[in-house]
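Quick question, first post here. What does this chain look like in 3D?
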Amino acid sequence: MRWVAALLLVCGVALLAGFSKEFTRPEAKAAKTYPLHDNHSDEKVAAGIDPYDTPEKQQIFNVKWAENGFLPVFLVITNDGDQPVTLGNLKAQLITARREKITAATKDELYRRLAHISAGGTAPLPIPFPRNRVKGAVGKKALDEMDAAQFGAKAVEPHSTQSGFVFFDVSGLSGSPLAGGRFYMTGVRDAKGSELFYFEIPFEK
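> Answer (accepted):
Ran it through. Tokens below.
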């Protein structure tokens, strides 16, 4: 009977929704242990990155960031000094082989892309459930993932590490954005407020 089949389908969908995975941020190691890193030994601060540029690595996310035009890069900052460093003016950029500069997306920019506000579209969010939503709204699961994933630390205490994802909008680029590109970061300041030398990390070893 059709109504029985429909009921079983609804129950199956609900069951799958209940078992949909929760996003878990990767556990960060010391920044200088990453293959891609820049260690400022004199300042005792290091930055490491891990681009999530393959479908296998991107499986940790529920939101399909690549399908929405974003490249997630896991950023790790380690402070081996005896004084804190501040990140209030942190600026991360992806600089392509053609010297195009792409600044890491803000939370508002991520939200607008997911909600398709800029395009005025009404397509559902690229997450398993729910499939239908009000135009311009972003589901709670996507918002929670955005908050949990995005790098948001304002300081790194002595002998500690902070980590999180920065998202670069690569939708307008042709070819691989990492080929010949590099990660560039400024805005790290010491306890006296003096800015540390910039961090620069080629995406290819």
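The longest strand covers residues 70-79.
The beta strands are 36-40, 45-51, 70-79, 85-86, 91-95, 101-103, 155-156, 160-169, 182-186, 199-202.
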